[in-house]
Amino acid sequence: MSFKEKGLLVVLSGPSGVGKGTVCRALRERGTQLNYSISATTRKPREGEINGVHYFFKTREQFQKMIEQEKLLEWAEYVGNCYGTPVDYVHKMIESGQDVILEIEVQGALQVKKKFPEALFIFLAPPNLNELKNRIVGRGTETAELIESRMSVAKSEMELMQNYNYVVENDQVLKACDRIEAIVLAEHCRVDRLIEKYMNKEGVDGK
Amino acid sequence: MSFKEKGLLVVLSGPSGVGKGTVCRALRERGTQLNYSISATTRKPREGEINGVHYFFKTREQFQKMIEQEKLLEWAEYVGNCYGTPVDYVHKMIESGQDVILEIEVQGALQVKKKFPEALFIFLAPPNLNELKNRIVGRGTETAELIESRMSVAKSEMELMQNYNYVVENDQVLKACDRIEAIVLAEHCRVDRLIEKYMNKEGVDGK
């Protein structure tokens, strides 16, 4: 019997402003063997963004159709635009034994957990909430009121950590990347993922 | 509230001849932050083995006393000699936040699991059983009959894999070490080990 290990779906999420995008970019620059899911969005392309590379750009109607046909693993509306994860790409990669990483907001992660409970849920956490506040303020794009509102959201988002498998503190980006890579490697060694491989092997039943 | 993370007890086990000792030595040479438990044994020292470094060499009477006083986390008789893990060292290290690795036979690992279910059980597996046979034969110290008997034991030991958390294939020693290090790092990121840290933190409840 040949055993084919499936790939992992890795969901990287955490409070808004924690640095999910930065960590994902750093992982990509390292050449980690993780495939990045490409989101569908109704947002207009920003300068330099290419359809099918950075996003699949969709009209509202197209996006609505994807929802109805259950072609999205999760989706959310954010600042007036819809974002979602096309399910086909994820399934194709996983079946072929490759890992896929999704970088999404916490609400999206909860949706994925319902549809894909066997995914690996990693919560990227700020070293503390003051640090998170500094990052949000540091962007320089938010009003004081919006910052307070975001902090309040971030606090409730932290409570969602209990739905995840792992928590990775984003104290230093490279350390966070090390931890994420270790988690993925470790998960590939879990007995429940591999037992079939060994129990089916010629040697074990004495043949 | 200050949160103090405990160390992990890592139990590395697997069929006789799989290379547990070699992998442990390689981990040690790398300077991994794992503390090595020193076993007690009634076996006579082999050339170069030092009391208190490689083993605590004990008489039968001394060993029996350790069993009676529950000073051993596990023990086993193997080819006429007794081997066991002194419990005091393990507890001391773990309470102080340091990780400890035990390299033991599969029967001992099952005993540890009963007494210490929160330990991390890693099964070191041969790429296949023929490979394992080659290694046992390669030692050149065993008769053909003993080799067959060992292989039969190894096959039944493989079945015990299901009691473990992780399986690491010892295809290449350094790769096996990478996987073990990744597993330990990943386990330190598990939400169930860390949730208390975040939920007790000032920031999260808004203070």
Q: What are the main properties of this structure?
A:
homodimer; 207 residues; alpha/beta; 4-stranded mixed beta sheet
Could you provide a short overview of the structure?
Chains A, B: Belongs to the guanylate kinase family. Two copies of one chain form a homodimer. Chain A is built from eight helices and nine strands.
What does this structure look like?
The structure is a homodimer of 207-residue chains. In chain A, strands 2-7-1-8-9 form a five-stranded parallel beta sheet, sandwiched between helices. Chain A is globular, with a radius of gyration of 19 Å. The longest helix of chain A has 15 residues. Chain A has eight helices and nine strands. The first copy, chain A, has a domain of 137 residues: Rossmann fold, CATH 3.40.50. At the A-B interface, strand 8, strand 9, helix 7 and helix 8 of A face strand 8, helix 5, strand 9, helix 7 and helix 8 of B.
